[in-house]
Amino acid sequence: MTQKITVGLMLLFLTSQISVTQKTATAQAPTPVAPATTTKQICPAQLLTSIDAIINRPLFSRARWGILVQPLSSGQTLYSRDAQKYFTPASNTKLLTTAAALQHLGANFRIRTSIYQNSNGVLRVVGRGDPSLGDNQLQALAQQLRQKGITQIQQLIADDSYIQGDIVNPTWEWEDVQADYGAPVSSFILNENIFSFKVLPQAIGKPLQISWNDNNEERRWRIINQSTTVSKNQPNYINVTRDLTGTVLRIQGQLTENSQPYLVTLPVVDPNYYFLRRFRTALATQQITLGQTLVLNGGNNQQEIAAIDSPPVSQLVTETNVKSNNLYAEALLRALAVKQPRVQNKITADIGLEVLKTSLTQLGVDPTSYFLVDGSGLSRRNLLSPEALVQTLRLMAKTPVAAVYRASLPVAGKSGSLKNRFRNTPAEGIVQAKTGTVTGAVTLSGYVNGAKYEPLVFSIMVNQSEQSVSNLRKAIDEIVVLLAQLQRC
After folding, report:
1. pTM, rounded to two decimals
2. Is the same domain home to 40 and 118?
3. Cα separations (Å) of 121 from 152, 303, 354?
């Protein structure tokens, strides 16, 4: 079995410890039913003192809490603590991004990648920011070209004009753009704009072996291998660093002999040329030779001769929320700009943020209750109030896409980022909510479908605490379990 580790771009060869990541499960069906019995029952009148007892503990004395709990059917408040104040939302931002995507684009909208043939025989591939595009889709495009009788392409132009602006949000922190979860977003997204290789132990004292699954990427890097294989009683650790030129890769650390290989994932340096390199390989499998490749911004697209569509927005939204996929969220934000007039030199993400605000305002969400600079929540400049999140959740439940939106959320103890939380508690299976975690901020917002009280919508946000993430999550989970045990008294 291969262990997976995530690493990324390091500034001037600063090193960092690689962390182990785990795969997440898929979304489950909406509106699950509460267990027949629970360990405790809470009356609405007890909610204030019960929640206060949790957040007023001495270990949280310096933390900022924002909480709002309301019945799904109305704006009546069951509990509120600084609900109108701004907080750093982390990935709770995705609740707004995905709501706007469903409202503005519709659940069935798909993102299209096209290849055009111009009168001079030049082929143009136009990327439109499909986050789901992978090598299988490139193979499908190549097969379509072969079926058209194309066996040779003298010149292929990659049109990068669809998404304008920085490929990495300038407000993201270095620790984020270093990692695969901070991969760049552009007109061309392939394999979620990450690449990988394995490091394997050899005989004791020898450097670790590097095994690439993509020879094109291997040729791009100058490797400085300062790693070693050690005896079984030694610890395992790997540090991988890159310089800013994107040409030098340094590997440090050690693995014990006979240990499992580690999978290292890195964000690509230039998405456009990464796409072209992989497409050249796909064309070769169809016996199509490719000559010159260029990246241009704009041009005339004439006859479409091949195309591939993304899954519908409903599936993209599920991937975004269940797995808290930042790249998908950022791609959806930019997709919001698709129907807007193109404005020269205007950043596509900024247009998307304008459409997001317009869509949510039309939905009924107070436009002053949040301030966003990205679609994923990686930026620490995002500001959201519990009120904004509860409004979004409650109002989306009244729309034709309510079931799709709700099904995109992780289920407590069952799926996604909540798979390992709330197990064997009254909240298991009846809470659907979006998690959020960045340094200094832990959040959770979503729905509760209790057996003895009407459905609830809630948002819990904690900022500016020196406590560990596990301590903060434990407290948040205690509050949610209280909500799951609410009954009419």
Report:
1. 0.90
2. no
3. 10, 11, 39
Task: Compute the distance between CA of residue 397 and CA of residue 108 in angstroms, rounded to an integer.
Answer: 18
Q: What is the rounded distance in angstroms from the CA atom of residue 337 to the CA atom of residue 333?
A: 8
Nearest-5° angle of CA 322, CA 385, CA 77?
95
My answer on whether 60 and 133 are in the same domain is: no
**By 3-state DSSP, what share of the chain in percent is helix, strand and coil, each rounded to 5?**
30, 25, 45
At 384, which amino acid appears? L
Euclidean distance between CA atoms 113 and 263, whole angstroms = 29
Task: Write out the residue range of the structural domain in which residue 360 sits.
Answer: 31-107+314-484
Q: Are residues 367 and 349 in the same domain?
A: yes
- Given a contact cutoff of 8 angstroms between Cβ atoms, the answer to whether 440 and 465 are in contact is yes
Using the structure block, give the residue that is written with the tokens 């698709």: 338
Are the C-beta atoms of residues 204 and 230 closer than 8 Å to each other?
A: yes
Task: For the beta carbon of residue 29, count every other beta carbon within 10 angstroms.
Answer: 11
Pairing assessment for the beta strands 123-126 and 79-81 based on DSSP bridges: unpaired
Question: Residue 136 is which amino acid?
Answer: N
Both structure tokens of 336: 């919001």
Domain edge (last residue) among 275, 290, 310: 310
Same structural domain, 118 and 1: yes
Please work out, in degrees rounded to the nearest 5, the angle formed at the alpha carbon of residue 101 by the alpha carbons of 95 and 102.
Answer: 90
**What pairs with residue 462 in β-bridges?**
65, 442
Domain of residue 38, CATH code:
3.40.710.10
Residue 489, domain member (yes or no): no
| pLDDT tens per residue across span 110-124 | 999 999 998 777 999
Two structure tokens written together for 313: 């927005």
pLDDT of residue 91: 98
| Number of separate domains in the chain | 2
pLDDT tens, 406-448? 999 999 999 999 999 999 999 999 999 999 999 999 999 999 9
Examine the pLDDT at 105 and tell me if it is beyond 60. Answer: yes
Structure token pair of residue 330: 């950022």
218 near 232, Cβ under 8 Å? no
Residue 462: CA atoms inside 13 Å, Cβ hemisphere, count?
Answer: 26
Indicate if 154 and 275 belong to the same structural domain. Answer: yes
- Provide the CA 34 distance to its chain's centre, in angstroms: 29
Supply 95's token pair: 């609740």
In angstroms, how far is the first alpha carbon of the chain from the final one?
Answer: 53
CA distances from 298 to 38, 124, 188, 295, 327 (A): 61, 10, 14, 10, 24
